[in-house]
Amino acid sequence: MRKRIAISLSALFLIFMSGAGVSSLYISKTVSELHRLIDLHKVEEGRQELIIQIQSVQYTLITLDTPLGRELDDVIRDVQVLEQSANGCVGCHHRPDVAQELGNILEEIKSYEESLSHYITAQAPVGRLNDLKLRTAAIGEQLLRSANRMSVIARRTLEAMSLTAMNRVQFARHLLTATLILALGLAIGVSVLLTRSITIPVRKLVEATRLIASGGVGSQVSLSDRTEFGELAFNLNQMSTALKDSYDHLTREVAERRRTETALRKSEHFLNTVFDSIRDPFCIFDRESKPIKSNAAYQQLCGPPVHAGALSACLPPSDPSSLGYDLSVVEATFRSGDSCAGERQIRAPTGEILNLEVYTYPIFDESQEVAYVIEYSRDVTGRLEAERALRESEQRYALAAQGANDGLWDWDLIRNEVYYSPRWKSMLNHVEGEIGRSPEEWVSRIHPDDRNRFDLAKSSHLKGLSEHFEAEYRLLSADGSYRWMVCRGMAIRNAEGRPVRMAGSQTDITDRKVAEDQLLHDAFHDALTRLPNRALFVDRLTHAIQRAKRIRNYAFAVLFLDLDRFKIINDSLGHVNGDLFLVAVGRRLAECLRPGDSIARFGGDEFALLLEDIQDVSDAAQIAGRMQANLNRPIQIAGNEVVTSASIGIVSSGMTYSSPDELIRDADIAMYHAKSCGKARYEIFDSAMHTSVMRKMQLETDLRPALENSELVLNYQPILHMATGKVMAFEALLRWNHPLRGVIYPSELIPIAEESGLIGSIGNWVLHEACTQTSQWRKMFKDSPIAISVNVSSRQFCPDLVSTVRRVLEETGLPGKALRLEITESTLMDNSQIAVRILTELRELKVQVYLDDFGTGYSSLSYLHLLPIDALKIDRSFVKASPGTAQGSEIVNTIISLAENLKMGIIVEGVETEAELARFRNLRCDYVQGFVFFKPLTRQAAESLLRQESLQTTAAGPVLGQEAT
What we know:
- With about 950 residues, this protein is α+β, with helices and mostly antiparallel strands.
- Helices cover about 55% and strands about 20% of the residues.
């Protein structure tokens, strides 16, 4: 309590002192502001004097008619005073902007003084003096305006600071008043709190003592604090609780004693009732082997237990040598303290021989010594006879079962237990003790697909719908395999016609089933992958088509899949490992299917899939994507990790189809469309694809005579030097002037030529034609080191390319330095083993090699420094990308830096706008081509351009690589 009082008074004192301190601090700051305000008023007076001085000088200047006379001294004196006043203002403390303004005024005063000096010292005509006077007066007017502006600013500042100072004084007075009020309120609160802290605990303690004194044992004082009153209340509560616990303990002891006496009487009555309810003889012996208590069954055989050996006298043994057996068992239990058991045979008073099982159990006293022995006897005569008959029956049954080759079973429907013969168990490679008697041992081993058939046959026979039970099913063997069984049996019924037992045999027909399944499997499955073949797939597809016609909302899809680059895998690993690879691919594809879907191998590396019951074609696309991801994981073949991809065509049942061949045809078309779009992807069939295929077939037919009919021509797109804008080379671009469709461009022409096998002859013609034309231009314009770029198809990039180029150069007379072969990145990587050798031989011919479409395919950085490449061509996709994106600037910068490090040239192709051109001018690119300069030109237009330009080698700058001469 003393601590609480001290804390309250201390808090009161601290609050009062804090308020007074804050008020004093605030008043001190306010006084400082007032002193500063007084100083600023003095400064303002100086400013006013400055303005007066400026006006005085102006007045003297204006009224002065000549630079001579007494007024001259007044002017000089006024200017000096003016400068002193300005310096006095500058010396005061101001904000930076005000100080700057004062500095400007001082500069104007100096200008004013200089102007006055010129006027005073001038020796000139009157007109000249008047001009100097007017100019000096103008400077004075400007100075006066600046001083007035500063005066206005200073006056506003003084007003604001005065208002702030008055507010601070008012706030300090309010703060001091609030502190006094708060301290007074806190003092009153502390007084009330201390009064309540003393009177309330005292009243509660007095009430509690009165309640305990009147008999309210266990009463508690609801007072919890850390003062002396709290300690007193705690001790009082402890005392009250102890008194209540003692009273409750005494009450429980009295009640427990009463319950014990009542339970003892009930227990004795219960024990007597239990004794009398036991049907078998039951007796308790004491330590002297005297029977002290027995049940009614014991007394019926032996009479009341009145003397020792009563059981021996009452139940005479059939064999006199067993006399005294009972007492010896009882005595053995007394000696050992353990239960004993045995069998004996006696003769009943009727002369009947009875077989008894005798058991003894010890009862211990508090010292853990045997005080009593319980003897219990059971008549087992009937059971022994039944067991003997059962053994004889089982011997006969076992002999019959061993003679049969089938497994026998006997199902007790009442107890729900099944007897399985050893042969039944051995059929499943189980020994005798591994299978119990539960029906689940049988039913749980049935294959899930055969369970319904088994249950239906069993239920039908038990209901009386069939004369015999017969079913074929598969059972799970101990080795994890399933064995085909045929089971036959018959039920035994009671008088009411209800089946109570069913027995029969089981025969293993696995070999027969395997032979049948193998024949059927071979007819409809692929011998290598064990997947369904085309015949089975067509059959399932036929059912799907028919189902789609019957069910309105039923939909399905067909996927046709062809592996990409399988020929390379087959050639590199061998045909045996190639077959293993196809098997692994088949498993990978099957993993992606849903239950109910079908997969088939059509031959080679082609697979077909039937996806049934889909929502729409997006489900098929999702599964196709899952297949692509699964195929991208490496497959281990002969110690090698092989990664593949697939081109997939998808066709859905949404289109009207009447035969499986139409579906497979369209899926195949979609698959080839996926291959033509870059492989490793899927395409969904539409009618435009079929039209496209027919158009390609027609174009392929028309392409064969195109060379002979002179329908193929070359256009030439200029390649310009970035710095000078001069044409340094041309890129030869193929065009097909189709007689019906007009101009066909390489994007459509080249794939058809590659698929038809005409790319070789067309490529050779393009190379020969471009070199011939370039050789003619170089002869016509001898001062022009013009060069030609020719694109090389992946089908042309082979060892024969070097000999072809050598022959063309010899026939056309074109120097090798004037020929550039543009080869795509993917072409080099697909032929990486021979690429270095081919490029090296081309380098020996002094032919330059450009890497076309660099960065659009898979990375070849690990090989790039090994390949003799002269320049990289930045693809149009990077040119049109936004400069703010990573694809736009960062990748281009990386390509340029890479080329510089490898000492390669850079050509930017596809530049179409001035913005794109300006962007690449700043990126250190060597050469550029695109529509911003020229579209592809005809031979005549290109020749006219060369004539107009009259290229000069020295003015054009270096050509990519080593320039032709």
